[in-house]
Description:
- The chain is an alpha/beta fold.
- It has one domain: Rossmann fold, CATH 3.40.50.
- The chain is 41% helix and 24% strand.
- The chain contains 7 helices and 8 strands.
- It has a 6-stranded mixed β-sheet with strand order 5-4-3-6-7-8, with helices on both faces. A two-stranded antiparallel ribbon has the order 1-2.
- The longest helix is centred in the N-terminal third of the chain and has 19 residues, at 43-61.
- The relative contact order is 0.14.
- The mean pLDDT is 91.
Amino acid sequence: MEQYKKDFINFMVDCSVLKFGDFTLKSGRKSPFFMNAGLYQTGSELIRLGEFYARAIKENYGLDFDILFGPAYKGIPLAVSTVMAISRLYGRDIRYCCNRKEVKDHGDKGILLGSKLHDGDRIVIIEDVTTSGASMAETVPILLDQADVDIMGLMVSLNRQEVGLGGKVSALDEIREKYGFSTAAIVTMSEVVECLSHPSEGKPLIDSKMKKALDDYYKEYGVKH
């Protein structure tokens, strides 16, 4: 596993974004872990978060694209911090774009914030985590309604590696099959378990009890290979 992935996993834990315990997800599933990107709250945290996303986007998609699109609301700070990081780290100026939940009918009218979309724009979508893939059902029509754009792919921070709405493959795989663009994550849940079960120093955050809870969860909801 690359060092930046290990650093990102520990960063999520340090920021209390990734927690282990007993959680009920929006889907109704009882999960032994929970990830909430809304808990990145300080300037220094957002700077580091943008750098992790920038590294992963460059590694998976390169930097030859025009727009980084962040769906409202959590995608907005992700898109802004990441285009700033791409500019700072790689000297490439990518435009950012986000959507509003309600169309604005005065001033800067429309549904978009940031850059307008133009025919031929190449877009990477950025999100925190995708469990069901339902957000893409809102996001993709918004993009295609604005211009004849090329959606290159989706980047999330964590691939939970559990079945999506169809109950057979992961949410990221469902998105790829349905919409025809690539999907990627900074880290997968398998990488999280590997890193936190065998830390280079200190006690493991995932002990035998938590490992059993995770194994039981993935027996029920995990992707079957």
